[in-house]
Amino acid sequence: MMRRHPPRSQVPRPKPLGDVFFGANPVLEMLLATPEAVQAVFVTPGSGAAQVVAERARALDVAVEMTDRAALDRLTGGGHHQGVAARTRPFAYATLDGLLEARASLLVALDGVTDPQNLGAIIRSAEVLGAGGLIIQRDRCAPVTPAAVRASSGACAHLPIAQVVNLVRALAAAKDRGYWVVGLDPEGSLLFQDLPPLELALLVVGSEGRGTRPLVVRACDFRVRIPAQGRVASLNASVATGIGLYVLRERQLAGRTGGRPSR
User: Fold this and answer.
1) What is the band of 8 on the pLDDT scale with cuts at 50, 70, 90?
2) In the predicted model, what is the mean pLDDT of residues 240-257?
3) What does the alpha-carbon distance between residue 136 and residue 141 come to, in Å, rounded to a whole number?
4) Which residues, 6+ apart, have CB-to-CB distance to 247 below 8 Å?
5) Residue range 146-163: mean pLDDT, rounded
6) What is the pLDDT of residues 200-233, one digit of tens each?
7) What is the value of pTM for the model shown?
8) Helix-helix angle 24-33:48-59, to 10 degrees
9) 256 has which bridge partners?
10) Beta strands 84-88 and 38-43, pairing class
11) Do residues 195 and 112 lie in contact, with contact meaning Cβ atoms separated by under 8 Å?
12) CA atoms of 160 and 123, how far apart (whole Å)
């Protein structure tokens, strides 16, 4: 006797296109912080948490599709999705010219930060501490993914982020617009307290493992270290960024210079 296969479910199956993130709380946080970044929400029937997410998504005019647990398992690679997943739109990067034309008093540039969790934490610190934008490299830095968005706690929606091909050229362009480039460097000869109150400052942060590349170091006007007293060799990149931004902002509040002298 021929064995009959069970009929295929008639429930729509989400296609694994674009960046996908999942879990009731992460999806809800994303909807609350940046609903315009969410292309569609997928939920399974019968889940209370999924129902809450679906109601919030519909209230924000985000498309909601009902699906089954097996489809979500495939979409999320077997992750703990709690009956909820979402697909995001491509992140809208700012332009470098746009960042520099805005003349925010503080900017941040990253060289080689490849961990999306670190990237998200840096974005969060930068936004909270008043930076006007972030510059990352296209090939040597983690892009803004759902993991980075989650780690930023929604700060990605408020901090312009530019992606550049060549960081050294981007720093040169910033100098031409009046920015002083301050590099975090464990071997730096200066402390932040040694700096004058720079009117326009761009903080450069390297990776935790390799630090900042020599070409980028040479592009910095100041090489500043954060003094350490413990036994661990270095700080997490996001913590170091937060310390640097806070001190630079405090020194800016202490007084103003005339910006970068004309070359």
Assistant:
1) very low
2) 86
3) 6
4) 192, 193
5) 84
6) 999 999 987 788 999 999 999 999 998 877 656 5
7) 0.77
8) 10
9) none
10) antiparallel
11) no
12) 10
Question: Cβ atoms within 10 A of the Cβ of 237, count?
Answer: 24
Q: Does 237 score more than 50 pLDDT?
A: yes
Confirm if 91 and 156 have CB atoms less than 8 A apart. Answer: yes
The structure tokens 């996001």 sit at 238
**Res 63: pLDDT:** 95
Q: Which amino acid is at 182?
A: V
Distance separating alpha carbons of residues 107 and 258, to the nearest angstrom: 18
pLDDT tier, 261 (very low <50, low <70, confident <90, very high otherwise): very low
What tokens appear for 237 in the block? 């990149």
Calpha distance 50→25 (Å, rounded)? 10
What span, in angstroms and rounded, lies between the C-alpha atoms of 257 and 198?
6
Cβ(120)–Cβ(240) below 8 Å: no
Specify the residue for token string 């202490």: 254
Phi, psi of 68 (to 5 degrees): -110, 165
* E strand intervals along the chain: 19-22, 38-43, 63-66, 84-88, 106-111, 134-137, 161-164, 180-184, 201-206, 222-224
Cross-strand pairs, 202: 107, 181
Tokens of 233: 């060799």
State how far the alpha carbon of 85 is from the alpha carbons of 42, 55, 96, 146, in Å: 5, 14, 33, 11
Average confidence (pLDDT) over 174-196: 93
Domains (ranges, CATH) in the chain? 19-88 (3.30.1330.30), 96-254 (3.40.1280.10)
**Burial (CB count <10 Å: 0-12, 13-18, 19+), residue 236:** middle
Question: What is the rounded average pLDDT for all residues in the chain?
Answer: 85
Give the pLDDT band (50/70/90) at residue 170.
very high
